[in-house]
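Listing S7. Sequence submitted for prediction.
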Amino acid sequence: MSVSKSYREFVLEQLGTVAPVSARSMFGGVGVYSEGLFFGLMDDDRLYFKVDDSNRGDFAAKGMEAFHPFGDERAMGYFEVPEDILEDSEVLDRWMRKALKVAATKVRKKKACGGQGKLTSSS
């Protein structure tokens, strides 16, 4: 659960061609942000983007796996970004923008729910 300095720098350089990015160390990995949105993470020299039903198919079509931080069946809402995508600025642009949209949608939903992260009905 570590990220090498060279990998971190490479990823931030690649992503920085799409939008301003920053990174913060967290739990042995690295959180990736753009304009305050947490949309990606790095772990074991792999990059993962935030997913939902709007972009999960892109990852599935490439045979990519969900991020399993605890090595068991519990997956987080992040999928590994294929290396060829990371090296193709045009395609990376589309994938990153989709992940940013997912992150923004999650933030809006959370705020709409009063910070609870799920919608509740009031009867």
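Caption to Listing S7: primary sequence and predicted structure tokens for the chain studied. The longest strand covers residues 37-43. The chain has one domain: 5-112.
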